[in-house]
């Protein structure tokens, strides 16, 4: 559904040697790689490891959007090693394969895609993927899906405590909230209103190599 935005600049992208891959039914212009056709035609058998295993784990695995901690917003390089390290994120904060993890963060950021999706794969947990966060629907979603873990940015928690009180907002299975940027006043209000939920505040930069975890609360 985003292809129409890219189509007018296809000639300049081709001049710069940039490949355009699209998932979804076509037809598409020449030079655009239609992934769905390739997926449909692909064998279920894995290729030999030497075909797909990186020669160097520090090589670029992907580029991901960063909002500009070290300058203007840009695509930041993420290595294979850093991507694999994200597999252990939820284990580090105390989640397990029995958890149901609610994720409403944008997938073009590291928090949503690598820590969130890859983190769920790392522990074999169930991921409830919400296309767009809704403070008014959040607790209903948690009850309906049996959510036990919520990955936040601080603003999401502020939206929740700013909602008018509703019956049943303490009737949930949420036991752990993990994320970044939760202010102390919102932290206190969140716990007072919604119950004894363990909060693990973390901080890391897409382009950095150090991550902090507040295990003590």
From TrEMBL:
Segments crossing the lipid bilayer: 107-129
Gene Ontology terms for molecular function: long-chain fatty acid-CoA ligase activity
Catalytic activity from the UniProt record: a very long-chain fatty acid + ATP + CoA = a very long-chain fatty acyl-CoA + AMP + diphosphate; tetracosanoate + ATP + CoA = tetracosanoyl-CoA + AMP + diphosphate
PROSITE patterns membership: AMP_BINDING (PS00455)
One Pfam family matching this protein: AMP-binding
Ranges for domain AMP-dependent synthetase/ligase: 42-211
Taxonomy, superkingdom: Eukaryota
Record's GO cellular component terms: endoplasmic reticulum membrane; plasma membrane
Keywords on record: Ligase, Lipid metabolism, Membrane, Transmembrane, Transmembrane helix
Family annotation (InterPro entries): AMP-binding_CS, AMP-dep_synth/lig_dom, ANL_N_sf
Protein family according to the UniProt entry: Belongs to the ATP-dependent AMP-binding enzyme family.
Protein name: Long-chain-fatty-acid--CoA ligase
